[in-house]
Design a protein that fits this description.
Elements (H helix, E strand, L loop, with lengths): L10 H11 L7 E4 L9 H16 L3 E6 L9 H13 L8 E3 L4 H13 L3 E4 L3 H7 L17 H13 L8 E4 L14 E5 L13 E3 L1 H11 L4 E5 L6 H10 L7 E5 L3 E2 L6 H10 L13 H6 L4 H11 L7 E2 L1 H15 L2 E2 L1 E2 L2 E6 L8 E6 L9 E6 L2 E5 L19 E4 L4 E9 L5 E9 L18 E2 L1 E3 L4 E8 L12 H4 L8 E9 L11 E4 L3 E5 L9 E7 L5 H7 L1
Bound molecules: adenosine-5'-triphosphate and magnesium ion.
Adenosine-5'-triphosphate (ATP) binds next to helix 2, strand 8 and helix 9.
């Protein structure tokens, strides 16, 4: 199937296309409705790409609507983080940033409408009694004794609920549907509860707050949402969604369509669990680069285009499944490979002295910043008689196919000269502390000298000792040690990978990286992609996070586990 408007690539786009073709809707309107009670994660990113993507592709509109109906759990800080994340992902809501709380007056009016038409009542059972009366999957519920209250009595009680005459939990407003319904969501669901809490936007104007299903359905209708896209767990709520639309006088009739949640292997995609990690201090915050949050992935150096590409490759279905982390990393790698400038950096330095190099001589080599992208320019790299290489690029007693540096062997220093290992120097403990090499002074890469064409098997990266920039480099690994998080909340933290972060304090970078700005991403050749940390990288203190390795390492994990 090709990706043209005639053959939409998933079942939701097919529905949208058909509704536009049939004239059911002149314009598609979608929304992304987060609750501002935490940061957005990669699953939300999928939903954002779906909702905003459909609006863009079909010439429609998409609202960013804060579902702020629970003042106890929500905050303005979370709202700012959400707004930031959606913008960073590359989407524009124009003037359509809204809040369920913008509609509190209308939603309250809808409650009055239902009471007046005998379709809602104030219940005075305790929360425990309400639960007990609700029944179970196999047993029908029982009617509350308050179910027969007259509209007049309900209007009076509801007015006093709003006026603050009662304590939290003393009364609720319930829809009058069917206590024997096989669908528990239809057993007189609660529409409003008393909550004497300050709301981050409406302050103390309200002490009753609408429940999610009620507020959400009405908000959708008020915004003329045509297609209300949500995850599969809301499938059982759809009859309630429709009941609310059927029984109220609303300006439009949206259609709810469910799709499967995104689950990613080796991490968690539940806001509640991510919040638990933040609160327990197991990660440094919501934007810890190990977190699958949009803020964490941004700090990790993932480009927004990679996340959009990932969402599109994952697709939209009704089937519940788990996506491999390898797919996300492939998207990141593809994007960074195209755009990230190359640089030389040594994470675990071993000193190399070139004993025939002219004393104090500095030669500035020129190297392109990208093998294919001339537009990314070039830079100068200083070559001197004292350099550092990666400790594991030298082996004293290597296996046969080792093409890096070994006693008597030759290797090319990237963009520079061929060197030969003449002598190995150790400290008292026997640890190798220095390699003495001779340099083939005719062999500089790219020079006119025929010796520059001389082939040796290996090329390794390096930095000049006197010019190197010291850096802290943070290497991240999967958050969970197991593919799937434990089912029980109490247990999932035991499954955390204890080695999810390794810090290399003494890494050395080529001097061009001294001007890296927070958020700049480079490929450290042979090592992976690294981003200057947005929080901790500053003039005089270089801090880089590894975004992703150069090759997929997930396949290996799978076979050894
Ligand atoms: P969580 O389960 O992580 O707490 P949530 O559903 O409570 O998430 P909301 O802020 O209510 O978080 O979600 C906003 C929107 O994002 C909803 O439409 C929801 O269906 C969607 N969404 C949440 N998690 C995922 C996911 N893993 N995959 C796809 N969409 C998701
Ligand atoms: Mg939710």
């Amino acid at each position: 199937m090709t990706d043209t408007p005639e053959t939409p690539r998933d079942f939701i786009r097919q529905i949208v296309a058909a509704d536009l073709a049939s004239g059911k809707h002149g314009q598609v309107v979608t929304r992304f409705p987060p609750e501002p009670n935490g940061y957005l994660h990669v699953g939300h990113a999928k939903s954002i790409c779906l909702n905003f993507g459909i609006a863009l592709e079909f010439g429609g509109l998409c609202y960013l609507r804060m579902d702020d109906t629970n003042p106890l759990r929500e905050s303005a800080h979370f709202e700012e983080a959400i707004v930031d994340a959606v913008r960073w992902l590359g989407f524009d809501w124009g003037p359509r940033l809204t809040h369920a709380s913008d509609y509190f007056e209308q939603i309250h009016g809808c409650a009055i409408q239902l009471i007046e038409s005998g379709k809602a009542y104030v219940d005075s059972l305790s929360p425990e009694e309400i639960r007990a009366y609700r029944g179970t999957l196999t047993e029908p519920g029982r009617d509350s004794p308050c179910r027969t209250r007259s509209p007049a009595e309900n209007l009076d009680l509801f007015a006093r609920m709003r006026a603050g005459a009662f304590a939290d939990g003393e009364h609720v407003l319930r829809a009058k549907i069917d206590m024997a319904s096989p669908n528990i969501n239809l057993r007189d669901p609660v529409l409003y509860r008393i909550r004497k809490a300050h709301h981050q936007r409406t302050g103390d104007a309200w002490c009753i707050y609408p429940m999610y299903d009620f507020a959400h359905t009405i908000s959708d209708a008020l915004e003329h949402i045509t297609h209300s896209l949500c995850t599969l767990e809301f499938e059982d709520h759809r009859p309630l969604y429709e009941w609310i639309l059927d029984n109220l006088d609303l300006p439009s009739r949206p259609r709810q369509i469910e799709f499967s949640r995104l689950n990613l292997a080796y991490t968690v995609t539940s806001k509640r669990r991510l919040a638990a990690l933040v609160e327990s201090g197991e990660v440094s915050g919501w934007d810890d680069p190990r977190m699958p949050t949009v803020a964490g992935m941004r700090r990790r150096g993932y480009p927004p285009a990679a996340l959009r590409d990932f969402a599109s490759r994952v697709g939209v279905t009704k089937k519940d499944h788990q996506i491999e982390m390898g797919l996300l990393e492939t998207c990141v790698r593809d994007e960074l490979n195209r755009n990230a400038p190359r640089a030389l950096a040594v994470l675990d330095p071993l000193k190399v002295v070139l004993h025939n190099w002219p004393e104090d001589h500095v030669e500035w080599l020129t190297a392109p910043n990208h093998p294919e992208r001339g537009d990314l320019g070039e830079r100068s790299i200083p070559f001197t008689g004292e350099i550092y290489i990666e400790r594991d690029d030298f082996m004293e007693d290597p296996p046969r196919k080792f093409h890096r540096l070994k006693p008597g062997g030759e290797v090319r220093l990237r963009h520079g000269y061929i060197v030969r290992c003449d002598e190995v120097i150790r400290d008292e403990s026997g640890q190798v502390v220095e390699i003495r090499c001779s340099c083939d002074l005719e062999s500089r890469s790219g020079s006119d000298n025929p010796a520059s064409q001389r082939k040796v098997k290996g090329t390794i990266h390096w930095v000049s000792a006197s010019h190197a920039v010291q850096a802290e480099v943070r290497l991240y690994d999967r958050l969970l040690a197991t593919e799937r998080a434990e089912a029980r909340d109490e247990d999932f933290r035991a499954g955390l990978n204890p080695a999810s972060l390794a810090v290399r304090e003494g890494a050395l970078l080529e001097p061009a990286l001294a001007t890296a700005a927070p958020g700049d991403v480079y490929q450290f050749e042979r090592l992976g992609y690294f981003v200057a940390d947005r929080k901790d990288h500053a003039p005089g203190r270089a801090v880089f996070n590894r975004s992703v390795t150069l090759r997929d390492t997930w396949a290996k994990i799978g076979t050894s586990a």
